[in-house]
Amino acid sequence: MALHTRLKPGMEADYDREHAVIPPDLADALRDAGVHTWRIWRDGLDLFHFVEVEDYQAMRKMLADHPANIPWQARMARLLDVEDDYSGNDMGIKKVWELP
After folding, report:
1. Hey, which of 31, 64, 76, 87 has its CA 20 to 30 A from 55?
2. Distance between CA atoms of 13 and 84, rounded to whole angstroms?
3. What percent of the chain shows pLDDT beyond 70?
4. Residue 100 lies in a domain
C-alpha cells in the first residue's frame, strides 16, 4: 500500500522528531494488526508511505480505537494537513506501474 499525506507548513522538524522513536506499544499494535513494514519518506511537506500489510482496511479498523493509536493520532493531527477519520475506506495511491 502506498499512501500520501501532507504536513502543515512549519511542522517538518516536529514530524521528524516525533518519528525518531515510535512508542513500543504502537509498534506492537501495528504488528498485531498485520503490518510487516511501514516506511515513510518526506519531501518538504509531502510524506510518502510504503506499507506492507496483510489487509489495509482491516488494519485501520483494528487500530481506530486502539489505546496505543489514539494518542499517536492526536499528536499527528496537530502536524498533518488532513482530516483522517481512520475508517480504512481509503485505497491509498493508485499504482500505475511496477517493474516485474
Report:
1. 76
2. 21
3. 94
4. no
Output the pTM of the full model: 0.88
pLDDT at position 89: 72
Long-range contacts of 73-82 (CB under 8 A, 24+ apart): 75/18, 76/18, 78/8, 78/11, 79/7, 79/8, 79/11, 79/14, 79/15, 79/18, 80/5, 80/6, 80/7, 80/8, 80/11, 81/5, 81/6, 81/7, 81/8, 81/45, 82/5, 82/6
Domain count, the chain: 1
Residue identified by cell 498533518 is: 80
Give the CATH number of the domain where residue 46 resides.
3.30.70.100
Asked whether 57 and 21 are in contact (CB, 8 A), the reply is no
